[in-house]
């Protein structure tokens, strides 16, 4: 089948941009209709008449004037297209080289303006999608795809998803446009961020789906009211659980459904920070029953009620107790109960003042080390703030 010069030019452009091997080029040929030389962007208003190419030729010819700014001409051309304010009736399309030069100017205008472009997916290779931009073909790397595709079809591989996208129109942003090196790179994530980041606020709670899990945390895709997952944020390892997390993979797995709270939005870097643990109360700010489930529950650990004479204090507590009794207003300190958790949270001794209201001048402290948690009753005439100051002084004295 004869192949037109313009199409061969597009294939040549791809080979210079991506340096594909024979298999990659074959992949492109198999999934691209070579007879399709131009597809109109779906998100742009259709010009009132005739061809878009003449508009770009006009910008190209104007650049011969040394007083004319090429980038301004190109941006004006794109703006004119969007505003549907230019008519090019009865003017023939420019030759292919001039058209491609004008299209590169348009690409740079999209890059600088941040306009969203509707690009047709012409094919794909092992690294991403091939997207039509007027007479040019650019590249959309797989990591720049919106998470909605993989979340919608979680059982498909990325190449199967890519195959299903051939022929569709994606909303994308130009993130690189270098005519000399022939690099035209798109991002669907950036286009989605522009649309959906205005709909979120710090403190919002989302249903999410865990994407990749790394040593430093997990990336979670956020589900929006339309049922699709448009944005992705990071749950840092420190925000996964109140427990000490050694390996995020022990708690979260790719594909898990989770609830997350949005705790920070960096609009400059298009980044979201999420938290799982902030949707739960810190168990050590309550009672031992909150830390250790009650006997008979499905997940119950060992819980023992006893007096201080039969429970051996955690290492370091004896010294703290002696110092506490030296503080004015503290009359008695004793261990009332202890329990054992399923996992080791920290080997170091941790001591908290519970926020449970006092009863008969009895405040509750919680101590934890390893799997062991002990509940301590503190008889005192001090108020909560006074106890905190006394504890601070004691901990400064105890080595």
From TrEMBL:
Gene3D superfamilies tied to this protein: Nucleic acid-binding proteins
SMART domains given in the database record: S1
Limits of the S1 motif domain: 114-189, 203-277
Family annotation (SUPFAM superfamilies): Nucleic acid-binding proteins
GO terms for MF: nucleic acid binding
InterPro entries assigned: NA-bd_OB-fold (IPR012340), Ribosomal_protein_S1 (IPR052757), S1_domain (IPR003029)
Transmembrane regions listed in the UniProt entry: none
Pfam families: S1
PROSITE patterns to which the protein is assigned, alphabetical: S1
Cited PANTHER family: OS03G0844900 PROTEIN
The protein's name: S1 motif domain-containing protein
Organism of origin: Gossypium barbadense
């Amino acid at each position: 089948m004869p192949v037109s010069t313009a199409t061969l030019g597009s294939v040549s452009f791809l080979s210079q941009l991506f340096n594909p091997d024979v298999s990659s080029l074959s992949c492109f040929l198999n999934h691209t209709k070579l007879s399709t030389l131009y597809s109109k962007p779906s998100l742009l208003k259709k010009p009132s008449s005739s061809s878009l190419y003449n508009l770009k030729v006009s910008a190209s010819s104007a650049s011969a004037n040394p007083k004319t700014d090429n980038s301004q001409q190109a941006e004006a051309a794109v703006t004119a297209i969007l505003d549907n304010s230019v008519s090019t009736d009865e003017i023939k399309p420019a030759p292919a080289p001039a058209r491609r030069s004008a299209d590169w100017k348009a690409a740079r205008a999209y890059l600088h303006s941040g306009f969203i472009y509707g690009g047709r997916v012409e094919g794909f290779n092992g690294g991403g999608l091939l997207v039509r931009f007027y007479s040019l073909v650019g590249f959309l790397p797989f990591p720049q795809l919106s998470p909605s595709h993989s979340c919608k079809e979680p059982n498909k591989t990325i190449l199967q998803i890519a195959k299903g996208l051939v022929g569709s129109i994606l909303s994308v942003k130009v993130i690189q446009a270098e005519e000399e090196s022939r690099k035209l790179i798109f991002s669907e994530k950036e286009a989605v961020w522009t649309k959906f980041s205005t709909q979120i606020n710090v403190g919002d709670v989302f249903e999410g789906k865990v994407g990749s899990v790394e040593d430093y945390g997990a990336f979670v895709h956020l589900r929006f009211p339309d049922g699709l997952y448009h944005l992705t944020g990071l749950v840092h390892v420190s925000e996964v659980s109140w427990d000490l997390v050694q390996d995020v993979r022990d708690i979260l797995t790719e594909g898990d459904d989770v609830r997350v709270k949005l705790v920070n939005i960096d609009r400059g870097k298009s980044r979201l920070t999420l938290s799982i643990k902030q949707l739960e109360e810190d168990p050590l700010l309550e009672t031992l029953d909150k830390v250790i489930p009650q006997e008979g529950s499905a997940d119950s650990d060992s819980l023992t009620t006893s007096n201080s004479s039969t429970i051996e204090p955690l290492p370091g507590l004896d010294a703290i107790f002696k110092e506490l009794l030296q503080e004015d207003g503290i009359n008695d300190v004793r261990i009332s109960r202890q329990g054992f958790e399923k996992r080791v949270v920290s080997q170091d001794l941790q001591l908290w003042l519970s926020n449970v209201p006092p009863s008969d001048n009895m405040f509750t402290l919680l101590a934890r080390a390893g799997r062991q948690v002990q509940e301590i009753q503190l008889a005192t005439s001090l108020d909560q703030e006074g106890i905190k100051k006394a504890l601070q002084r004691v901990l400064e004295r105890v080595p």
